[in-house]
Amino acid sequence: MEVIWFVVIVIVFGLALLWLIFKLSKKKKWFTEADREEIRLKFKEIDKLLEAGHNSQAVMHADKLTDHVLQKMNFKGNTMADRMRDAESIVGGYYQDFWWAHKLRNQIVHEINIEIDESTARKAIRVFRQVVNKLKAV
What we know:
There is one protein chain. With 138 residues, this protein is mainly alpha-helical. 76% of the residues lie in helices and 0% in strands. Helix 2 (33-51) packs antiparallel against helix 3 (55-72) and helix 3 crosses helix 6 (95-110). The longest helix is centred in the first third of the chain and has 24 residues, at 2-25. It is elongated, with a radius of gyration of 22 Å.
């Protein structure tokens, strides 16, 4: 009789453990395939802005697109900076570069007569793209 109870307890514990593993491994799907395609298309539009020499606009659009991804993933905060801080653990090694790219966008928006060269714009957009990739939005 004691052996039967032991077997029942082991089976119940095993089923509970399987259920827990299933729940923890089930990732929330933040983006549909249509969402991912829209993000890819937006990055293509950003690349076209760069090719046309609209460096500042390209950086601003990449920043805005990345913030859209952060918002869609429900990162907390009233501002992009708040959401960036909330995403730090996921963004990982790109975090400092992410801040640099966002600060560049802020310079573009708030400073008068700022000119961004193509190389700097490409670097910033590459960072935004890496962050979006890291967040598995594309």
